[in-house]
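Reproducibility note. Readers wishing to regenerate the assembly model reported in the main text can use the exact inputs given here. Chain order matters: entities are listed in the order in which they were concatenated for prediction.
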Amino acid sequence: MMLAAIDWHAFFFWLFALLTCGFALAVLFSNNVVHMAFYLILALGASAGLFFLAGAEFVGAMQLMIYVGGTLVLVIFGVMLTAQSQFVSMETRAGEWVVALGVGGSLLFMLLITAFNVEDWRSSNPERDRVTIADNQVTTQIGLGFAGVRVDKLEQPDGRLRAGMSGYLLPFVIVSIHLLVVLIGAAYMARTKRRKDDSGGRS
Amino acid sequence: MIEFIEPIHVSHYLLVGAVMFVTGAVCMATKRNVIGILMGVELVLNGANINFIAFGSKYLRSDSLGLDGQMIALFVIVLAAAEAAVALAIALNFYNNHTTIDVDEADDLRG
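Running the prediction on these inputs yields the following structure tokens for the assembly.
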């Protein structure tokens, strides 16, 4: 009886929200950089659960694949390449903690006041029960949106708005070239430098 | 127990996003390790992503951002990956040149 009264969407939301916030705070308050990397993986993985609950399956899957699978492997390589014993655990001075927590607490207070004071954000969607799961297969629409065709907004009555909703082809191209440049630049910067006084070597 | 019965709103997602953002910002401010600062940046970007997903969700609002929220979130993920690669390369370069990873030691440009 009590079990039937539980909104399982809300239950899993609070579970993943608690995991996300808890592990994010663990990243902040841990001093050991190896532990911080592990907590960061768990926090980002739990936030992928929040994405799934909001109906964004594709973004949740990408979060798990790119962030947890790619970016954090990179971060852990950085930890391993620089983890000499005196750098694994670095204490922050108490004065810095006081200032940072004061500024951060007031920022959080301001953000929360804003988040909970807008009426439209506090009310639930009246059509929530009519949003069906089968209606939510968005991967094709996202792919076509990146290719420049917004199949999800074809019924927009205003012609000018319809022209403005012609997709994300240009940002997609820009971000592709950006990734290529970043790849070359990172490989160039991170390669092992040969010293100038090496015999006969190029500098 | 009452939280499990009332439905989830956009505000609750904004709560999680705000906690993640502030945690990342404080992390950037207090950590002395370059890798720790990079982790703070990742937390900030992920907090922004949670807000984009919440405003784009059809479950939470009737007039949501729609797919725009999800696409912008994907752009943020890709840019975060690129940023991590460049920041890691800078950190490794700094470590090779200074044999330390403490950002407080990076004061070569001090006048």
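We highlight two features of this model. Residues 7-101 of chain B form a domain with the Helix Hairpins fold (CATH 1.10.287.3510). The two ends of chain B are 59 Å apart (CA to CA).
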